[in-house]
Amino acid sequence: MTSSRLHMALLAACATTLAAFAPVQRSSAQQAAAPSPVLLRDARNAGFTPESVRGTLMFCRIAKEMGSNFLVKTCYNEEQVKLKIQDYQAERNELDRITKIPTDIH
């Protein structure tokens, strides 16, 4: 095999390999399902950052596990992060209710 044929064969192999690992094009329906600005704001306020994980939008958070000093990255999809945000808000409301000092005691 001559060197030019070898080069052509290598280029063809590289092109085939790159095509196999090329990112998948998202359809217009997937692009239209982008999260709302309100969800993005609430997720950021709860400590989540939007990230693309394997082509899917996920909301990730890095925190220490209970009883450990190791940081753990946990990612949630859009529905799961909505539930987490609601849970965090319910916990905050409960803490506010418990720690609030009644003002009508005489």
Query: What distance separates the N and C termini?
Result: 100 Å
- Which class do the helix and strand fractions yield? alpha+beta
Alpha carbon gyration radius = 24 Å
| Helix content, binned percent | 40-55%
Query: Please, what is the average pLDDT?
Result: 77
Question: Strand order, biggest sheet?
Answer: 1-2-3
The biggest beta sheet reads: 3 strands, antiparallel
Contiguous uncertain segments of 5+ residues: 15-25
Count of DSSP strands: 3
Compact summary:
The chain has 106 residues and is α+β, with helices and mostly antiparallel strands. 51% of the residues lie in helices and 19% in strands.
Which keywords apply here?
106 residues; alpha+beta; 3 strands
What does the secondary structure layout of this molecule look like, with pairings?
Blueprint: H1 3-20, H2 28-32, H3 37-45, E1 49-53, E2 56-64, E3 71-76, H4 78-99
Antiparallel strand pairs: 1-2, 2-3
